């Protein structure tokens, strides 16, 4: 398998590159500067809106580690995902977005999104981020000529804990454990991302994942 990683020098992107390469996946790193680049594969240094289809035509997946995870870095109309939807349309190259819990449903009735739930307390900054993510996902959902899918973390994406190495996938409903916990360590989220690529997620769908604490 060959993948390309958008934002391969971001905190999440670097981990994806290293994890994928450790499992024998060939990685093309797409960055807009040489800073903090990792991995041994092909390197493309361009502004994201200057990437062309020939740069990624040999890949099975393009993994976007920027558009949702670092959404405030860009204006709403300049997220990298919009450019990649354009260059990937009607091709066999698939797009995997690393998403947000904000646009998962709160329960099986699928009547309310997490961002709309009164039980989730958000500060003003997080509320802004979540609203931006929801709006971007709505726009993404209208795209039918690219084979895209989204992997959403639970409420807490923990960048500091090492992780248990155990996690479980679910559908587009917020994943919550029997004790009411909804978290995953970043290391486990990265592992889940690479595993999902191998499992080949369903087209035009959201997949959620949560970490499992070991006793």
From TrEMBL:
Organism per entry: Succinivibrio dextrinosolvens
Protein name, entry field: NADH-flavin reductase
InterPro entries in the cross-refs: NAD(P)-bd_dom_sf (IPR036291)
């Amino acid at each position: 398998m060959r993948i390309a990683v958008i934002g391969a020098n971001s905190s999440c992107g670097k981990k994806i590159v290293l994890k994928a390469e450790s499992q024998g996946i060939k990685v093309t790193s797409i960055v807009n500067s040489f800073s903090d680049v990792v991995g041994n594969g092909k390197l493309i240094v361009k502004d994201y809106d200057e990437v062309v289809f020939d740069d990624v035509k040999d890949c099975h997946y393009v993994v976007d580690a920027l558009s949702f995870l670092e959404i405030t870095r860009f204006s709403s109309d300049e997220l990298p995902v919009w450019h990649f939807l354009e260059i990937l349309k009607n091709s066999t190259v698939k797009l995997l977005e690393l998403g947000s819990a904000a646009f998962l449903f709160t329960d099986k009735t699928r009547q309310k999104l997490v961002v709309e739930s009164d039980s989730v307390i958000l500060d003003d900054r997080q509320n802004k981020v979540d609203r931006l993510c929801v709006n971007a996902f709505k726009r993404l959902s209208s795209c039918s000529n690219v084979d895209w899918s989204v992997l959403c973390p639970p409420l807490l994406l923990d960048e500091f804990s090492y992780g248990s190495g155990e996690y479980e996938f679910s559908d587009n409903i917020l994943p919550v454990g029997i004790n009411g916990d909804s978290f995953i360590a970043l290391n486990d989220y990265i592992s889940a991302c690479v595993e999902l690529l191998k499992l080949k997620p369903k087209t035009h769908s959201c997949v959620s994942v949560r970490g499992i604490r070991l006793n």
